[in-house]
Model the fold of this input.
Amino acid sequence: AQSVTQLGSHVSVSEGALVLLRCNYSSSVPPYLFWYVQYPNQGLQLLLKYTSAATLVKGINGFEAEFKKSETSFHLTKPSAHMSDAAEYFCAVSPNNAGNMLTFGGGTRLMVKP
Amino acid sequence: KAGVTQTPRYLIKTRGQQVTLSCSPISGHRSVSWYQQTPGQGLQFLFEYFSETQRNKGNFPGRFSGRQFSNSRSEMNVSTLELGDSALYLCASSLEGTGLYEQYFGPGTRLTVT
Done:
């Protein structure tokens, strides 16, 4: 069985500061890993994904994440936060051989202070 | 290209009734997945359809069912509604069902059960 843990349900940063959102997973097989963002009253938008190619993955809007197998982690970072980054972020995992079934973490709400 | 559309966007039903939600995937996409989002349980996978066949099913009671048509449009049905079924129901479509391809999410249907 797979599971995803996101440390910190709420994270607050100042505009221009580093954004770090933490994600740890457990999976019996090498998984695919994803980060999604959700703005109020909207669906989910894919930020980036890891599918066993490069361990450092670059996504949209300046976000990137590094897959660390030894730490079973896939933390999301952005060097400089913008006000428009305020949203809820979800880490998700899917098995690499069983279709499009995503298991999500509990989500982290990012707040950006001016 | 038009995105994933879900109808209706908002729905209010009474306990004990049944409801049908509709999802139209992006043109050419063959995989459709459904998720339930609630404040208490977060995002949970309901089921996935690929080429009209249910390929994966989450841990939900039999009151939750779905189907996919030959044009890839999908419907999900919830019978004998309970208060706990109040949630945002998200549909996602993907070109193929391997996990390698991005899942595009619709805006969701917000179901309120009274």
Observations:
- Chain B touches chain A through 27 residues (CB under 8 Å).
- The mean pLDDT of chain B is 94.
- The two ends of chain B are 37 Å apart (CA to CA).
